[in-house]
From TrEMBL:
This is Putative glutamine transport system permease protein GlnP. It comes from Desulfopila aestuarii DSM 18488. GO terms for biological process: amino acid transport. It is a multi-pass membrane protein. Part of the binding-protein-dependent transport system for glutamine; probably responsible for the translocation of the substrate across the membrane. Belongs to the binding-protein-dependent transport system permease family. HisMQ subfamily. NCBIfam families: HEQRo_perm_3TM. Residues 121-308 form the ABC transmembrane type-1 domain.
Length: 319
């Protein structure tokens, strides 16, 4: 009871601060001379388009059979070739017995299509997923190399980490696409995934190195005394314990990778950010689109954060 009594003033203070921030944002927005067009946003997620049906030959409409909202149109060519299409009844442009020429419109069919924001989000997701898997593999190998007693292996890993961490990701993407991609004839998708994987891999390597070094040396010595080889002890004893410790920073790195993937838009990969820019170019709905894009990134990263919290709880129970 005392704990509840002690926290309620802070809850009230939090509510006051949030209300104040909301009021400040609302007041700022009202001062902007801007016409909001939120009604346009839904079509960027999914929209209904019309698929046009044309006659593929010179011929005649031999039958039009209506069945409610759809109609079946039968076309016969001069060589007695028969083709049947189904169109929306209200869009029919022909009548039975009418002569047509190749390319003439018969009618339309309304179909639902994914909007550019959904397609861009899908591109962002698969780019981030592939890059994360590659980054984990690169980071694990480099992290093990960083604690290796072999001087050459250790220094090569250290040089890679320092170069990648010491240069901007945007510059690395340009180098991967315009230089390496040109030399090896790589597509922009491959160059983008490679740049993201190498960038995240350097940070994952340091996370793995720190996690392994946080495990007491006695764990390795005990495993070795039981007759296990160095790789066996590392895979079966040290890494499972290190994984529990590095899970939070590791997940944070992959969440950052999802946001960092927006930079691949500079090499014409149509991810979520580039899709937003293209929509703004044609509609000038700047604020609406960027707010929606930000909300979509926030939704994805929040879901991933919740998944990580669940994994942490599960691992805590298994201790």
């Amino acid at each position: 009871m005392n704990a509840t009594q002690n926290t309620w003033p802070w809850k009230v203070l939090l509510a006051v601060i949030l209300i104040g921030m909301a009021a400040a944002i609302y007041g700022s927005v009202k001062k902007i001379d801007y016409e909001w067009r939120w009604y346009r946003v839904p079509q960027y997620f999914v929209y209904q388009g019309e698929e046009v049906h044309k006659i593929p030959f010179d011929g005649r409409i031999t039958a039009v059979v209506a069945n409610g909202d759809v109609s079946t149109v039968t076309m016969t060519s001069e060589s007695d070739e028969v083709k049947t299409v189904t169109v929306d009844t209200k869009t029919i442009k022909v009548s039975e017995g009418e002569d047509l020429f190749v390319g003439d419109t018969v009618g339309f069919t309304a179909t639902w299509h994914l909007g550019p924001l959904v397609k861009g989000l899908w591109t962002t997701m698969w780019l981030s997923a592939i890059s994360s898997v590659l980054a984990l593999a690169i980071g694990l190998c480099t992290g093990l190399a960083r604690i290796s007693k072999n001087y050459t292996v250790n220094m090569l890993a250290a040089i890679y980490v320092e170069i990648i961490r010491g240069t901007p990701l945007l510059v690395q993407i340009f180098i991967a696409y315009f230089f390496i991609g040109t030399v090896f004839n790589l597509s922009r998708n491959v160059a983008g995934v490679g740049a993201l994987a190498l960038f995240a891999g350097a940070y994952v390597a340091e996370i793995v190195r720190a996690g392994i070094q946080s495990i007491p040396r006695g764990q390795m010595e005990a495993a070795r005394s039981l007759g296990m080889t160095m790789p066996q002890a590392m895979m079966d004893i040290v890494l499972p314990q290190a994984f529990k410790r590095i899970l939070p920073p590791l997940s944070g790195q992959f969440i950052s990778l999802i946001k960092d993937s927006s930079l691949v838009s500079v090499i014409a990969i149509t991810d979520l950010t580039k899709s937003g820019r293209e929509i703004i170019t044609s509609t000038f709905a700047t604020f609406e689109v960027w707010l929606v894009v930000a909300a979509m990134y926030l939704l994805v990263t929040s879901l991933l954060s919740q998944l990580v919290f669940y994994m942490e709880r599960r691992l805590a129970i298994s201790d």
